[in-house]
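Chapter review: from sequence to fold.
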Amino acid sequence: MGLKRKLLVFSFSFSSIGGPLALVGQFLENVTPYEVALSILIFAPITFLIYYSMNRVWDKGGLYDYVVKFTPKLSNYFLYFWFFSYFLYLSYTVDYIVYYILNLDGLVGILLTIGIAGSIAIITFLDKELEFLLISTIIQILFILPINWHLKPMNSYELSFTNILSTSLLYICITLTPFVGNGSKEGINSVILSYVITGAILFLDSFFNIPKIIYLISSFSTFSLIVVEFYSLKSVLSKFSVKSKKYLILGFLGFTLASLINPYTYYIYTIVPSLTALYVSLMIFFISMIFSIRNVLKLLGLISVGLLGYGLYTSLQLSSYYLLLEQIITIIIISVIPLVKNRLFY
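The token string follows.
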């Protein structure tokens, strides 16, 4: 059971980073090897602190369990922002696969959207996420190797600090790894191992032009990431209700079907507040870490909060009044919920 558990945890962690095939197929084309290397280095403090937190608290509540233990007053703020972000992620990413990666439309797009949502719901209902992700990891590794790819011209290796920071933030979903915890320490090194392996692959692939077919196949990697998100949400909710899985699946299917009214508008108006809430929730988590760690680790915590703060800033839609207003209202409403809850029940 030990080896199997380690493989399943590694697959979960590996699939969470983008997943790797999605990073390569969808985002790596205009990124140089230097930028990839520096982005991996810049994001390393977040990865290490996630590993450190798993050594202290590692159960199905993931990051939430850590915040509850060390800074309980922040726990509800973290939970509401985090849940809001990833619940929206489930449905709008189905639309992203169908209407943006595969560029489908009409009846075919509708049927594939329903098919993808239904497949994810079945995997989740049967509790087969980890087994699926193990298969997914093998498939992603097979397609991520640069076999018969063409090298980029050497004169294209420029350096952009904005590119470096933006690329580093693409790894953000590795913060989901703690949510695969089950109270044991088996596979705890998976977060470091998967990060190093993914970084090495991204660095290697950044020397090559990415074939169009890899871009299309990367939709499977994005599908796998939705499964990771679903598992994480289900794990946290199971701490509060035994019926949570059923409601989560029904909510996901309902929102996905509603998105078919206008997938493009739905995608824009859900991804924007979702990203904002994600960065706020993770900043809360790392602030919690800063309060509970010592010495040089505090510096790593401050670096992590700084990078996430940059992510929050870049997520703000300053050029669109309506989207920016949506983001501000989202932050205000979610921030008020714990205060109202405390007044009503205490």
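Two observations follow directly from the output. The chain has 14 helices and two strands. The first strand starts at residue 150 and ends at 151.
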